[in-house]
Specification:
This protein is an alpha+beta fold. The protein contains 9 helices and 16 strands. The chain has a 4-stranded mixed beta sheet with strand order 11-12-16-15. A 3-stranded mixed beta sheet has the order 1-6-5. A 3-stranded mixed beta sheet has the order 2-10-9. Helix 2 runs antiparallel to helix 3 and helix 2 packs across helix 5.
Length: about 400
């Protein structure tokens, strides 16, 4: 009797995975389409027969007890492959491909009930909503369970066994080749691989068990989010075929640009324009904070007083602690940066012009000298401006 273990080069206590791995390696080596050895067809036949026996627990048990697992009356095994040497037998190509690439020999009918796909929608937020969090209604258009058949896909009656594949969900086709009859397996075209057909499909969903519909859900947005962040809502996506469980819904956030504040990370930046007299003499400015856009914030949080010291130069940045964006993953808030821009008057009446001339005379600036500085020099122009306007 042929030693199938020796043929595949595996020990007698080899596992199913070891047997499949050995067969895959040998089948790829000795397949007649790629092998150059003159006895490759015969070796390929022997390898296939050994795999058929050792991969089947019943045949392997019979073989180990000394019996003939092929039940031969003169004909070779492996689905009639004993004549492969003369190319007169048949060969299950699907079994070879599955063994070589890790598939199963038979997939069988697939379930009509499957998980739905994940869905992605986008939601726009104001800067205040993104900063402090909000719960917003969101309209989504996804597949939902059919309200007529409740996911069964049938208008009445149970699915029946497919007559084409006899409930297997797949059919086998035989094609002649020089190595014999090649059998290939593919999903049944009648039942689409389900193994059953619905004789009376639901008119609402055409047998799918789901329909498209718009619905509204409430999405809770945490404080501190920014453009590009996503909210994950489990089981809120597309309902699967056959009324299967829904996939997940991802809400991608986008924050609308604010007319006053600019966000930089967790900080807020704002520009304040002051007359040159206020910047020179110093002043206090009351500014609205981002909280002013929220009705649920206390009145004292909706504004802040900025102290502008005398002699403040254009471009000076004043930092207000903890008035920025709450940190999404952490405690505390960013800062609010206030940049002062000093405005020079463009229209003066005679009295105002006279007062400025008097000031220029007092400061000996009626005929100021021009100080030239090379563009890009380190601290040259800035240092001169600070020195001149602080004098």
């Amino acid at each position: 009797m042929t030693d199938y273990y020796e043929t595949l080069g595996v020990p007698r206590d080899a596992t199913a995975d070891q047997i499949k791995k050995a067969y895959r390696k040998l089948a790829m080596r000795y397949h007649p389409d790629v092998a150059s050895e003159p006895d490759s067809a015969e070796r390929f036949k022997q390898i296939g027969e050994a795999y058929e026996v050792l991969s089947d627990s019943n045949k392997r048990d019979l073989y180990d007890r000394g019996g003939d697992p092929m039940g031969r009356g003169g004909a070779g095994g492996f689905g009639g492959m004993g004549n492969m040497g003369g190319f007169g037998g048949s060969f299950d190509f699907t079994n070879l491909v599955d063994a070589m690439f890790g598939g199963g020999a038979s997939r069988g009918p697939r379930s009509r009930v499957q998980r739905g796909q994940d869905a992605l929608v986008r939601l726009r937020l104001t800067l205040a909503e993104a900063a402090f969090g909000v719960t917003k209604p969101l309209s989504v258009d996804t597949a939902v369970v059919c309200h007529v058949c409740h996911g069964s896909g049938s208008a009445g009656g149970d699915p029946v066994t497919c007559r084409t594949c006899q409930g297997h969900g797949e059919i086998t086709q035989v094609q002649r080749s020089f190595i014999g009859d090649i059998r290939t397996t593919q999903p049944c075209p009648t039942c689409r691989g389900y193994g059953t057909t619905i004789p009376n499909p639901c008119g609402e969903c055409s047998g799918e068990g789901r329909v498209r519909a718009s619905r509204t859900i409430n999405v809770k947005i945490p404080a501190g989010v920014s453009t590009g962040n996503r909210i994950h809502l489990e089981a809120q996506g597309e309902v699967g075929p056959g009324g299967g469980p829904a996939g997940d819904l991802y809400v991608e956030l986008g924050v609308t640009e604010h007319e006053t504040f600019t966000r930089k990370g967790d900080d807020l930046e704002v520009v304040v324009r002051l007359p040159m007299t206020a910047a020179a003499l110093g002043t206090a400015v009351t500014l609205a904070t981002l909280e002013a856009e929220r009705d649920d914030r206390p009145l004292e949080e909706q504004s802040v007083v900025i102290e502008v010291p005398p002699g403040t130069q254009s471009g000076t940045r004043i930092t207000v602690k903890d008035k920025g964006i709450p940190r999404l993953r952490g405690s505390g808030r960013g800062d609010m940066g206030v940049t002062v821009m000093v405005q020079t008057p463009t229209k003066l009446n005679e009295e105002q012009s006279e007062l400025l001339r008097q000031l220029a005379e007092l400061r000996e600036e009626t005929k100021p000298e021009a100080h030239l500085h090379r563009a890009g020099s380190k601290g040259g122009l800035i240092s001169w401006l600070k020195e001149t306007f602080s004098g």
